[in-house]
Amino acid sequence: MRDPLAKFGLTTGTCAAAASKAATLLLQGTRVERVVVPTPIGLRVEVPVNGLSVLPSCSAAASVRKFSGDNPDTLDGRLIVAVARPDGSGGVRVRGGRGVGIVTSHALPVPPGESAINPVPRRMIEEAVLEAMPGGGVAITILVPGGAEVAKKTLNPRVGVEGGISVLGTTGIEEPVSNEAYSGHIRRMVVSARCVSDTLVVCPGNTSEKIARETLGVLPEAVIVTGDRVDTALDEAQKREFSRVVILGMPGKLSKLAAGLFNTHSRLGDARMETIAALAAAAGLHAEGVRSILACRNTEEAFRIVSGAGLEREVAGMLCRRIRERVKERYPGIGAVDVYLHSPQGSLMGSSAEEVLH
């Protein structure tokens, strides 16, 4: 469910796609003040172009200023720059330049050694460029002035991206999911859900929301996206006396819930690896494996170790049941609580209903 009062922003992927389209048009002699680009959710958005420059060697550059809406973002107001030049190989080639990080971890969707431009934003850039030049034959370089400094304020170095920011976004639209003002939006969504259902489905992110809608068989209005503010949703759910609450998410957020961190923002705490390591040890993982988990930079790496030991389903189930216990302790007024853990690819890893699955 979406709150109509929320102020939405644009992902870095959308900004990069818009800058790339404007630069490609300039490469052909057309100057524009704004461009319209497609997004993965079927919407086309109009994006203002901040600046245009014709460069030597038959190249052209365009910039778009990042707008994050109500969502606090270290990149808000930063320029996302695209440089376009002719490329004889055909198609659209996309790479990162200064200010865009390099992937160093095998757990991310981009292979190590490549620019940190995720697959969905990469496709968005390609589609936007082909709208401007249907025949292709363009090389695009994405730059973020000051990106290396900004990245130090993010989790990038800890998750396996070095030297700059990541170009991200699965929907093209950035929802206000982490700031204090969003708490009011969440409360309104919970109230609206209660009008049509006595079951509330809480999803920290967009991917989980999509999975919930496709697999749980509940009304779409009963599914809400909370971002970091799971606590706000559960506070309101207890007040509204829902008979059932379902929590569905990926390991990164849910491992924090298992540790009792119901506001999962990184500034408030991070016990992801400690939680997974403790559960893995309880499931029988050897000491060397536990130490390896504690040294991991992200939960995908940690669960790869758990999976390699044949313990993924058991540990995932333990994590879900731990969350259910935490929720029942903190929110005794909520009825039944079910927890589902899924992978970034969408497959079910475990649930609170499972004792031990093999």
Question: Pairing-aware structural class of the strands and helices?
Answer: alpha/beta
Q: Major sheet: size, sense and barrel closure?
A: 5 strands, mixed
The SSE string, one letter per element, is EHEEEEEEEHEHHEEHEHEHEHHHHHEE
**Bulk shape:** globular
Distance between the termini: 35 Å
Number of helices: 12
Strand content: 15-25%
Low-confidence stretches: 1-5
Q: Let me know the average pLDDT.
A: 89
Question: How many strand segments?
Answer: 16
Q: How would you write the strand order of the largest sheet?
A: 4-5-6-9-7
Structure description:
This protein is of the alpha/beta class. It folds into 2 domains: 9-174, CbiD-like (2-Layer Sandwich); 182-351, no CATH class. It has helices spanning 12-27, 119-132, 147-151, 156-159, 182-194, 206-215, 230-239, 251-258, 272-282, 287-294, 299-308, 312-330, and strands spanning 9-10, 34-38, 44-48, 51-55, 59-65, 79-86, 91-96, 102-103, 136-143, 161-162, 173-174, 199-203, 223-225, 244-249, 336-342, 348-351. The strands form 5 sheets. The chain has a 5-stranded mixed sheet with strand order 4-5-6-9-7, covered by helices on one side. Helix 1 (12-27) packs parallel to helix 2, helix 8 packs across helix 9 (272-282) and helix 9 runs parallel beside helix 11. It is globular. 48% of the residues are buried.
